Amino acid sequence: MLILGFDTSGSTASAALLRDDLLLAQTSLYTKRTHSQIMLPLCREMLKHAEISVEEIDLFAAANGPGSYTGLRIGLAAVKGMAFALGKPCVGVSTLSGLAWLMAGTQGKLCSVIHARQSLYYCAVFESDGTAVSRVTEDAILEETALAELLESYHAPVLLNGDGAERIAALSEQFTAAPPHLRLQSAVGIALAARELPHQDAMTLAASYLQETQAEKLRR
User: Fold this and answer.
1) CB-CB neighbours of 176 under 10 Å
2) How far apart are CA 16 and CA 193, in angstroms?
3) Quick one: which of 143, 92, 97, 136 has its CA closest to 116?
4) Could you tell me which of 77, 58, 95 has the C-alpha nearest to residue 185?
């Protein structure tokens, strides 16, 4: 199966092309520019160099949250548009699950952590057997002290990634932050995680923010 993955949930705009267990191509750019300006050009260039046409893609995958409200909408809209136009399936992948799959080569407890606001973090715990990742907890938003207490309760080393990894890793000798090349969001993780998930119709693809958007707050 040929999977095209997008991650626009944070400051990194990323696309990846995966055929079964073979990573054919990937591109990532850490940027302050709007993802709508650069995501599709990055994807087109990647597909061109891989000599793959978008019509050949079997499954489209995108990070569906948590993360930047605007960034998530951009990536999901791109994937929905391509999947709908080509009549192909798609899938929304938890940003935290995508991050965890980047650390799949490490056996043991994994935790993906994204800074939400102030001392709050989006987080989820996973387990890896060195090849595949399984979920231990659901995606949540926790205060850093509560998160540290949860991770310490496993009484085992924990490898962390995401933009909150360094901060949380500093709270206990039991925690270690992943190296830089595995720390930030990447479409590689999204594509890997997508292999395990049920396919969706483009019309059902939606974001999972974990927090209210500004529009939702104003409607209250």
Assistant:
1) 14
2) 12
3) 143
4) 95
Measure the CA–CA gap between 165 and 38, rounded to whole angstroms. 27
26 is written with which tokens?
């990937």
Whole-model pTM?
0.94
Burial of 138 (0-12, 13-18, 19+ CB in 10 A): exposed
Task: Tell me which amino acid residue 162 is.
Answer: G
Q: What is the pLDDT of residue 212?
A: 61
Contact 101, 192 (CB under 8 A): yes
Least Cα distance to 202 among 92, 50, 68, 49 occurs for 92
pLDDT (tens digit per residue) in 70-99: 999 999 999 999 999 999 999 999 999 999
Give me the amino acid identity at 191: A
d(CA 153, CA 11): 31
Assess contact for 3 and 61: CB atoms under 8 A. Answer: yes
